[in-house]
Amino acid sequence: MKRAKRSAVWSHFKLVNDHKDAKCTICGSILKYNNSTTSLNYHLNMSHSAVLQAASGSSQPTITTALGRRVCDSMRAEGITQQICNMVTTDMLPINVVDGQEFREVIKYIEPGYNIPSRTTITTRVEASYARKKAELKTQLATANVALTTDCWTSLNTESYITVTCHYIEPDWQVMSAVLLTESMSGRHTADNLADKLNQTVETWGLTGRVVACVHDNARNIVSANSPTRVNWHSVPCFAHTLQLAINDGFATYINRVIVAASRLVQHFNHSNPANKALAAKQKQMQLPSHKLIQSCKTRWNSVSEMFNRLTEQRWAMSAVLSDCTVTKLTDARTLELRDEYWQLMEDVAPVLETLKCATTVMSTETEVSISDTYPITFSLINVHLKTDKGDTSKVGEFKSRVRTSLGERMKIASDDLTSTPPMLATMLDPRHKHLGFLTPPRRIAAHAKLLKVLAEAEAGRGSSTLADAASDQQEVVGAVPVQGAVLQRRSAYALLMGENYTTRSTDDVEKEVDSFLKDPPPLLDSSPAAWWKVNEGRFPRLANLARKYLAIPGTSVPSERGFS
């Protein structure tokens, strides 16, 4: 049995063509009918508004009055309220958006029978949504080993904030991330205050003892905050920030003159309305892309490269504007026009800057494994891309040499501890880089030995570390020496039951797994290490546990910076 047609539009329409179309009884127009009266209502309001107005005094309800009396049932009202809350949270809108006159007009037009909730209601709903999401994330993080990134920033109102993000790999090897904290920091950004904030965040989220590392920039206070005396995790400098510092060292040459002059030229066009309009006209006349000029910024990575590329692209359009005395004063033009040697240097250094930009981009991913690329990329830059070539000009060669030296020193590639760092362990656990072809044979052997040691300790420590911690806790609480003795006696009993060769057999198993992993053919360089481990976890279970732990570390602190960029 067909449902009765209750909409007021049927006073002016009738169904035709087996109910597929609707015919207007006023003008005879035939419209498609898909069980919705929206298009029919639109037709009446746009084409026959006079007829509707004339009928407003009759007893027959008009379209407008019929819609105005429509009741918004509780289920639909709840759905609309939830969508408003989602809009506020997802688009980060102020809650008082619900008080806006135009917002209320839109809702009234879409759903006249809906009562818009107050700011208090939306606030309560948003807070409840936050609590639910936080509980869900806590559940996801309950057993995960995580890595952190952190950075501080200042708002336009000069208020200081800190952001902390966490990163982990799920059982299905999906790389995940979440923001744990973004809040104001009223106190000074001392190492102690920063460390306290990080430790409080870890404790709040129940992550104590499961944080592998924290990735941060090279500022002295945050480096000190992540020292072993203040936190219980590894400190990992942000690769992108380290590389940028090395690049800045390279810029402290003749290239800096070019940067200053280029920045002055860009500033002129960005701040002069006549020059900007004239540039747009010249771009159109010369059939150049209608691109805005890019200003370099010390705190924004790769901005110098982007500025040089854009200036080179728009060179002749800018020159034409500077040559036009009706737009640019002759004295200004002489000051702003770049020397030919500056233009040449921008072109010559562009390939080097593009390579460095590529390295930053690759390392700044948040959805893929990146930490294991740290040293392969570092050594590739130092040994290949930053080596001076015969075709390099003296200025480009000097830039390469300075960046190369600075990067090597900042990444501590000559350090004896290189093979023990979290990025190097992650590199060995990445099936693409496990052979460490960028290292000398002696250091390669030392690195693989370190991996074997860490893996053996992880296996052996599952039980013994727990027992030792339990003994320590008991002694600390009650001063119970007999309890510690009982624990040691129990460990001796384990040795008696398992046999003196038990540990040796476990070590042999670990060595066999590592040896088998190293002999396994490596995947292609553009393959995903996480996807590889998802397939091969069963073959190398011990290494897989370690890989899930170390490969979760981001290569840069960019995720925490994205929270305010």
UniProtKB/TrEMBL annotation:
The keyword Ribosomal protein does not apply. Signal peptide: none annotated. Keywords: DNA-binding, Metal-binding, Nucleus, Transcription, Transcription regulation, Zinc, Zinc-finger. It comes from the Eukaryota. The keyword Zinc-finger applies. Its main location: nucleus. It is found in: Nucleus. Pfam families: Dimer_Tnp_hAT (PF05699), zf-BED (PF02892). One of its GO terms (molecular function) is protein dimerization activity. One of its GO terms (cellular component) is nucleus. Residues 4-55 form the BED-type domain. This is BED-type domain-containing protein. It comes from Sparus aurata (Gilthead sea bream).
